Every structure is written in structure tokens, then in C-alpha cells.
Predict the structure.
Amino acid sequence: MSDEQVSRRSVLRGVAVTTVAGVAGYAVAATSDAAGARAATTAANGYGADEQTRSRLAALADIPAGGGLILDDARVVLTRAEDGEVLAFSATCTHQGCTVSSIEQGLIVCPCHLSRFDLATGAPVSGPARRPLPPVAVEVTGEEVFIG
Ligand code: FES
């Protein structure tokens, strides 16, 4: 084996090692960039989605103080205390699953068997329902209410 052959073999090994290292480095860098982009999106707002992609439920002005608003599509009841605090409950009656349909005399009313629930707590006040309407997390941002 001549010095020239050894030298040529060493050069070829060097090229092969460099090529493999380059491909592996590219793969690691590409994966890290994708993970970094996802982390940045989540860190920007804590939910991974910006305000435009959150589910808007209603405008604050649509919820009367001391009353409420039933959102059939979202199956949510939004209520608003006299001091302006917004609360939300499931619109599904805990008796047999009908959707509550009205707010009368400060109570949320289910049309099926006339259970009535407290606006501030969702607790059953009269009728056959024994469990409260479950609370729903909402957020008020500016003059809009979003699912929380
Ligand atoms: S389902 Fe609502 S009162 Fe029966």
C-alpha cells in the first residue's frame, strides 16, 4: 500500500464522515426549529391560540345586569351580577338533560319539568333537579366574553 493510496483513503473517509455529520446536524436543527416555534406560540398567550381563534360567546352588553343570556348553540348560560361580574353555567339541565330555555324572575328555567336554578350559583331552587348547573369557565376581555 503506497502513501498515495493511504492518503486517498483517508480523504474519502473524511468526506464521508463530514457528509454524515452534516446531514445529522441538519436534521437536529430542523427539529429544534419546529419545537421552538411551537413553544413560542404557546408562550405568547398561555393557551396556544391568539384572541382571534378563541371562542367568543357574547358581548358584555348582551348580558343584562341581574339577568342572563342563554346561548343555545354553545349550551351555555351567561349571567351577570348587579356588580357586573359575569358567571357561566352549562345550559343542560341536571334533571334529564333538556336545555334551559328562559330566565324568569331571577331564575334560570328548564321547560321540560320546570326546574329553576339560581342565577348566581346555578343551584336548583325548585322542581325535580337536585344538582346545580355545572359552572363553565369564561374570560372577559374588553367588552367581549370568551369561553375560558
Ligand atoms: S329536564 Fe329539566 S326539569 Fe327535567
